[in-house]
Amino acid sequence: MKIEKLIMKKNIVKNKHMGFTLVELLVSVAISGIVLLAVTELFITSNDMYHEQDDVASSQQEIRASLDIMSRDIRLAGLDVTGVGAGFTAANQTNLQFTYDLNGNGTLAAYTYQYDSGNKRIMYDNPNLSSSQALTKNGTISTMGFMYQLSNGTSIANPAASDLGNIRLITINICNEVEGNTYCFDNVIRPRNMGL
């Protein structure tokens, strides 16, 4: 009988340590839930940061590409081997128009770059297009402005018609806002054919 009691007692002690109590299960579920919540928050934050950085990179790429295209054309403003009168035809803070004779045949090609504030984009027009085209997507450019330096060193935002032939430097400023942060790029362009 003593042996049977001892074996039974040993089995009871053994069985007591084989499972978890309800409190232990609740504590482990609570800890697992907290860890899972932290991992989920980390994933969501990382995902948001990835998308924000992707938007910033896309915006910067679009602005740089626009500045590159505009710079290439503006550098050629006034190119006129036949002397037909190429140069700037209109200039203000948000609009720049100019001509040049790229192939030297005496026919001037007219180019226009302007900021469309209603659609927040840059528009351009050139002889190869039937109408004005968007250089950037709608809503991608929060501000764009031109600033002009004349041959006498004066900087001006809206040169008079009589000053168009005296423009020597053009500064373009393009900004965009992504997720509450503003990103701006400036480019200073020297039209090579002006003032020769």
Pick out its properties.
9 strands; single chain; 2 helices; five-stranded antiparallel beta sheet; alpha+beta; four-stranded antiparallel beta sheet; 196 residues; rod-shaped
Structure, described:
The chain is of the alpha+beta class. The protein contains 2 helices and 9 strands. Helix content is 35%, strand content 29%. It has one domain (51-189). The model has no long low-confidence stretch (mean pLDDT 88). The strands form 2 sheets. Strands 1-2-3-4-5 form a 5-stranded antiparallel beta sheet, with helices on one face.
The gist of it:
The protein is of the alpha+beta class.
Helix percent reads 25-40%
The overall pLDDT, averaged over residues, is 88
Distance between the termini: 121 Å
- Report the major sheet: 5 strands, antiparallel
Query: Structural class, please?
Result: alpha+beta
Topology summary:
Blueprint lengths: L1 H15 L5 H54 L12 E4 L3 E6 L8 E8 L4 E5 L7 E2 L8 E8 L4 E2 L10 E12 L2 E9 L7
Antiparallel strand pairs: 1-2, 2-3, 3-4, 4-5, 6-7, 6-8, 8-9
